[in-house]
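In response to a reviewer's request, we include the raw inputs and outputs for one of the modeled complexes. The two entities were modeled together in a single run.
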Amino acid sequence: MTAKELNLETEFQARIDRGESIEPKDWMPEKYRKTHIRQISQHAHSEVVGMLPEGNWITRAPNLRRKVGLLAKVQDEAGHGLYLYSAAETLGISRDEMFEQLHAGKAKYSSIFNYPTLSWADIGAIGWLVDGAAIINQVMLTRTSFGPYARAMVRICKEESFHQRQGYEIMIGLSQGTPEQKELAQDALNRFWWPSLMMFGPKDEESPNTEQSVKWKIKRKTNDELRQQFIDITIPQAEYLGLTVPDPALKWNEKRGHYDFGDIDWEEFWQVVKGNGPCNAERMAARNKAWDEGAWVRDAAMAYAEKKSARVESKVA
Amino acid sequence: MSESKEWPIWEVFIRSKNGLEHRHAGSLHAADAEMALENARDVYTRRQEGVSLWIVESKHIVASNPSDMGELFAPAADKVYRHPTFYDLPEELKHI
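The model returned the following structure tokens for the whole complex.
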């Protein structure tokens, strides 16, 4: 590293330490740029792939109230993907490049979406737990150091709280319904509880990027801190529903002021990350199909726009 | 597959209510201005965020460079005489 670069890096870190926002045209270390492109695009991919398990139930929603809610939620996820792709694009990567990385299986997205939605109750559990976990992470990210990312998060957080409430309302309906309905709700909680805890990522001691991310204020809390926060908030909500969290080790710890909880199956976590989850192949196939089969529409829209502008120009001339 | 061209990027500005200025909300891709306006409505005003939209193709925006910040904006820093408090007036004076 040259003396000039060293100087720029020191000044950059000083700006972060002062709590200044970094904007796209500002000088930044290459690693900061790359980390953001990776993190923001992965976040965007998660929003987009996240539409698939929920879209599975739109036509089978039990009534109109549930259907408009779910439709609006899935539409929001598309918008959230768009905000995030736009934020990543300010760092010099194109939208198509990001799509290519996703469709080629090179980019990651949140593993939670590689689990299937087997019953309607899963839509409730996803809204409550998955969106709940996402909110904890995203609220932290509204204060992240990169301006466009932070601003996208503010917008997303405003919209996200409706997602969690619509999910919880579904859970209330089911858990106060017939015994069969309550059983569906319990089953959904059983299947989504552990994957939701895994959403916060590996344990701190196994998360090599955390230290740098905290230093650059990309992250302001560690994976374990966020996970604990989520558990502490969620347990009383499960109790209200009269459902049992599938963790025999779960216990309030008076001394710590937090819930203690059992071991997460990290082997499962890494298997799903590596592509061996129940729905990885299905999700990728659905994405590729949508992208490939929509190609002619994108091309036609562009050709039409070019023809139209050529016509206007020839009229002017 | 044909060599696909990426749709251009557009910047979206929203007037949240009459009497207020348009403010930058974000950006999106669209094939042309008409589609950009329709997409902006769908993406950025789903919850009554505004009463008016401006759409500008991003390539038409001219932006100052952060490294020129000093040159551009520092000269204003030492011109305190542009502010009302620079002028000494007796305290008993009212409405001025």
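As requested, we also summarize the result in words. Chain A is about 70% helix and 0% strand. Residues 103 and 287 of chain A are 7 Å apart (CA to CA).
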